[in-house]
Amino acid sequence: MMSAPKKVVLAYSGGLDTSIILKWLQTEYGCEVVTFTADLGQGEELEPARQKAELLGIKPENIFIEDVREEFVRDFVFPMFRANALYEGLYLLGTSIARPLISKRLIEIAAETGADAVAHGATGKGNDQVRFELSAYALNPDIKVIAPWREWDLSSRTKLLEFAEQNQIPIAKDKRGEAPFSVDANLLHTSSEGKVLEDPAQEAPDYVYQRTVHPEDAPNTPEYVEIGFEKGDAVSINGEALSPATVLTKLNELGGKHGIGRLDLVEGRFVGMKSRGIYETPGGTILLEAHRGIEQITMDRGAGHLKDQLMPQYAELIYNGFWYSPEREMLQALIDKSQEHVTGTVRLKLYKGLARTVGRWSDHSLYSEAHVTFEDDAGAYDQKDAAGFIQLNALRLKLIAARNRRLSK
Amino acid sequence: MMSAPKKVVLAYSGGLDTSIILKWLQTEYGCEVVTFTADLGQGEELEPARQKAELLGIKPENIFIEDVREEFVRDFVFPMFRANALYEGLYLLGTSIARPLISKRLIEIAAETGADAVAHGATGKGNDQVRFELSAYALNPDIKVIAPWREWDLSSRTKLLEFAEQNQIPIAKDKRGEAPFSVDANLLHTSSEGKVLEDPAQEAPDYVYQRTVHPEDAPNTPEYVEIGFEKGDAVSINGEALSPATVLTKLNELGGKHGIGRLDLVEGRFVGMKSRGIYETPGGTILLEAHRGIEQITMDRGAGHLKDQLMPQYAELIYNGFWYSPEREMLQALIDKSQEHVTGTVRLKLYKGLARTVGRWSDHSLYSEAHVTFEDDAGAYDQKDAAGFIQLNALRLKLIAARNRRLSK
Amino acid sequence: MMSAPKKVVLAYSGGLDTSIILKWLQTEYGCEVVTFTADLGQGEELEPARQKAELLGIKPENIFIEDVREEFVRDFVFPMFRANALYEGLYLLGTSIARPLISKRLIEIAAETGADAVAHGATGKGNDQVRFELSAYALNPDIKVIAPWREWDLSSRTKLLEFAEQNQIPIAKDKRGEAPFSVDANLLHTSSEGKVLEDPAQEAPDYVYQRTVHPEDAPNTPEYVEIGFEKGDAVSINGEALSPATVLTKLNELGGKHGIGRLDLVEGRFVGMKSRGIYETPGGTILLEAHRGIEQITMDRGAGHLKDQLMPQYAELIYNGFWYSPEREMLQALIDKSQEHVTGTVRLKLYKGLARTVGRWSDHSLYSEAHVTFEDDAGAYDQKDAAGFIQLNALRLKLIAARNRRLSK
Amino acid sequence: MMSAPKKVVLAYSGGLDTSIILKWLQTEYGCEVVTFTADLGQGEELEPARQKAELLGIKPENIFIEDVREEFVRDFVFPMFRANALYEGLYLLGTSIARPLISKRLIEIAAETGADAVAHGATGKGNDQVRFELSAYALNPDIKVIAPWREWDLSSRTKLLEFAEQNQIPIAKDKRGEAPFSVDANLLHTSSEGKVLEDPAQEAPDYVYQRTVHPEDAPNTPEYVEIGFEKGDAVSINGEALSPATVLTKLNELGGKHGIGRLDLVEGRFVGMKSRGIYETPGGTILLEAHRGIEQITMDRGAGHLKDQLMPQYAELIYNGFWYSPEREMLQALIDKSQEHVTGTVRLKLYKGLARTVGRWSDHSLYSEAHVTFEDDAGAYDQKDAAGFIQLNALRLKLIAARNRRLSK
């Protein structure tokens, strides 16, 4: 069994649940707590978290509050989008991709502060516990990880609130009742699950959606946007150069306004059961469409097909929490190699929930009008070559057919 | 070299180009011509093709006109949709999947009529020649295949029309000028390419779209539809049992009305260059979304991930013309095995170009509310199991981290 | 937590360890025990197991002793060999493939005898616990599984022997000391691991090998053998038709005599660490070589390459214990589809540890001397076709090169 | 059609066939010829090629003779061995891997000498024409490639000899008759095919083997060898640091002496038919075994399994001639990433045709005796974790089983 931790770095949102965890760590383990609160673009103020942490007795030097949005998009979101990653064909992995960054900072802060443990607020039923912990162990094999939800006996809302009251943890009024569903958000997406969403036959109520307008309420006029790419990453919008996080922020605004990026999904969790989630990924949905658009003219067929073939495994690794694994890094090396010429501009039309590529151009284009034209191609392509091409591709099929005919006689 | 054919079965649409081919075969090879005209759901009358063939001297017993829509959907489209097949991430393979059926009938008719050759009207630059011919050779290794576009010197529109006039082939008035783009259509899709579409930077003009309304012109009110599945195939719409072709026809109406299924794509052809196509697949786009929806609750994660991993290769095989290949049949066996429980109903919302799953239910469901619930699960799942699950999944990552740490000292 | 089992079916070898488990189950859980002892070809008498079970108080009707060798080879070994399965490039999966069969019989016997639990003697560090239990749960989701090695506190040899003495379990003299390594055996292989083998830098001592002579001691004269195949399975040796288990037995004799099938491997376990094993698979090694030999002439290239690509995942599934999973069954459907024409005969040369294919022939052969010959091929193949084949395969590479040249200017 | 070449760089061996080609190029095209003769370790003197070229009228500045053995092993053989590449499970790709290097030098020499074409002596039936030409076009999209065997009418041995005599090309006495089989050799392997080998049922005659002794004639005493690796490449033998080509030369001596590396294979050619080859790869066979040996302790399971899964496609790309393709380079990036810690030493036993790993050690080892030991592991591994690991891995299988049970009621 794990020996008791002496000092623990907690992934702390400032909310009720992680405040209870903070106090529980202090009381259960009698250990010093360091808090880490990250701005991943979830759209909440961070300073209240500092005040709450102080209120709960955390020393100022043990409170870490950081804006990691640029790092998040540059080092996690963008590398993933180079792969056109979709889990189970549809999910853009918005929650999955944020976890390794949080774990990385927890481990770094543990090293800085001399902590021997980290803690998180993910439950024992979900994927996030796995993602947090695999990343943590991959970065520090000796770290202790505390997952209070798997340990404590605060198994109902009532018990949690009792614990909070007993420990003078302030409870916002609207937290007294239970939320009708659970939410996770960052710059890439907002996910909602649980409670009212647990019956996958029932359409999600309108009020679940928080980040995108209903397509019915989106503008009646389409909007066009041009996204510039360099080596597979979005670097500009409508000609204006932007940083990674700023690109994504801007695309979120556009997508949100046009009702783009909603997904109602039942997915297979790594821990074994299926769950239903409502995802809103407005900017990411546009970005995926645009990235495919620029790859269409700049990426060779052989390269693209290999990428497509490996994408599901890559997405699965991220979903399952293996960002910091050799196989994810190997796949990333392969993917990044493919992006050297993925540079150019894509024009998209946004309208009522749909983002569609309608044009793309690039100095790196492999599209050759000379070869494809229905007009005279001035000798670029000799149609007679196709006869030999077909004959040799057919040869093995002919040999099979001849064998089968021979045997059936 | 191939010896001269004596009797050839021609894939004959009744249009100007294949009428010229018909005459050219007669004059160039002096051979008897059999015509095969198929109703694949392209939306054209077939009887005029009979009259034209007769006019060009084809004996009545050599004119084959058939409605193959049910066979097309049942034996080609549906098996492909079981795989969620998308070529290069986006293309539903509407043209590719029709070619093997045509070749199959050409070869069968050749056997019935004692013909030693088949002929088609695909050019030497495209994928269709490959698809026609690989299928033909796979079904009859001794068949001769004639591809006039690769052989003759009718290399311009002017020469074609001259040939037509010299040979008394009637030319419809609107065929005097050149079409602004080229079209292929069947029950699954309509594709347009060439001419005005050859610059992939330019948005396709509105008049290119023929089968779907512009999303802007689609109804302002969403429409819901429920699709029933059995073993992976759609069998009913809104509770009404329908045959395969009827299901697809009905979905095409729904999709066309709501502007669903438009795609502007630059793709990598098997013959080596990139080309740009505008595809409209209204019913197929709804069907893919619905099939993924029913798989979400009825298909195991391990099964689904394996399917997803192999889908790109399966799609590539169909795109490249290898429908009648052992590897496509092997993949089909794998895919069909996975569909045994893909039975149930999906509810979708159709609106302004978008088809979205909003609910799904099935007696075959693997979704377990008892396991996933945020509420008390009555012991269905022991959260403590997750700790061991994570520890053993982490073990190899810890060993790597410990090794790297050891070496860096 | 699991409620206490009332009646448990134990995988019982009759050896000291499983006898201790038998007694421990009786004392710890106070439950009725049913024993299952299988002849998998491990080369031990089974009747002593019956006597021991009776001695330990098992009712006669609760003692199941069965010869499952034919089922083992026909339904498990042969299907696996159709895939040319090798784990981590080298391991023939001899232990892995036996576990699902044992679990299957445990579950069936539980149903017959009204037992609510099964038990096995695998430790908590190895793969076998996973294989036993995944199979058991896949066949009966409500079964209880008891793995005494993960539960009890008999953590040393001394404690085990004390427990045995206290419970009147007879201890064979040679079991007083510890074995220098641990052994598992069945008709497919013998594996040895642990203790003296734990340092992977040290060559395994000669006395570890039990089933194959040292190559140095093998006959100085090569021996030839001809193996007949039907649909991928070996059905005859030197012209004599044999049952599955008899084929493998005979190949084991041949391989053992010639020192064939030894492997010294460090492998990655599913539970996370690496382990070192010495494997002897004499007949299986010959069979794999022969199966590849017959596939060489009877299997199409496209089919074979797809199989090769998927083999590592198939092997991993078996190694990890997922025999009874949908994805293994899907892969099996694919593999079995590929074997329809894998019928014919292979001639091998056996000599001093090596089995090499030296000839193969089949009515189902796809090898065409007419096509491949250096001599005049009478028009079977037109070398000029190769020019077109190469041009179109090269086209995309030329477009890349032209693009890169253009950019570098 | 290709315009006539003005200056052509010929891959020139100095043998009769390429001498005939040289003269044919001069007479057929009236073009200037540049010869390139490479020492790839084929074991022939190169200076005679210079004299013959001069005799045939090639200007001294147009004669290029080079020792490329180090480049061959370092930049082609070693990268390929990092992947453990085997084509169709068995073939070490000895011919395939040499072609891109030759094409690279042909293209470079063409640039240096202002030539507009290259020529090779591969026939129209084999893979080598494809490999030469795909590489050439990938490196220079505008190069002309001349493949005389596909063009000329010298279709019999008699015609070739007549042409030689008419053109004063000296014919070695032993070339008057036809060779009983055709040979290709380089530092990695010797391949033999054709003529007496064309019946795959017949064992290859002893005299075909040229580079390895018959196992029966190999020493009766095993020999041990230790091979040191750094980042996946062999760098030393028995403790002596050696250059890439020297390592391979030394391993060839060892393998040849012990009869190691013989293969009798029927393989599927890229051009569509099956062919039978006898391959001797003495050093390469040892190297593959050793590389797998060192990976066993230094490579993580996840990394290794991904490599294994992709190996067949990587091997196919090399076999088919796509060395200079983006997808091969992408896979190489993935593979090279995996080799960063593949450093250490392997001990092998060589005996009568067999090379077997018997020990391996490394500072980079991931093998942990503490974790795997049968003895007390001092808490390195908690066996109870396995229970949770199994439960969650089993969960989806249980849900399937429960579903199926429910439906069968």
From TrEMBL, chains A, B, C, D:
Q: Does the keyword Ligase apply?
A: yes
What broad class of enzyme is this?
Answer: ligase
Query: Could you tell me where this protein is found in the cell?
Result: Cytoplasm
* Pathway where this protein functions: Amino-acid biosynthesis; L-arginine biosynthesis; L-arginine from L-ornithine and carbamoyl phosphate: step 2/3
Q: Which residues form the Arginosuccinate synthase-like N-terminal domain?
A: 7-170
Molecular-function GO terms, alphabetical:
argininosuccinate synthase activity; ATP binding
- What's the catalysed reaction? L-citrulline + L-aspartate + ATP = 2-(N(omega)-L-arginino)succinate + AMP + diphosphate + H(+)
Keywords attached to this Swiss-Prot or TrEMBL record, sorted alphabetically, are: Amino-acid biosynthesis, Arginine biosynthesis, ATP-binding, Cytoplasm, Ligase, Nucleotide-binding
Could you tell me the EC number(s) of this protein? 6.3.4.5
Residue ranges of every copy of the Arginosuccinate synthase C-terminal domain listed in the record: 181-399
What quaternary arrangement does the UniProt entry report?
Homotetramer.
Q: Which HAMAP family match?
A: Arg_succ_synth_type1
Q: What is this protein called?
A: Argininosuccinate synthase
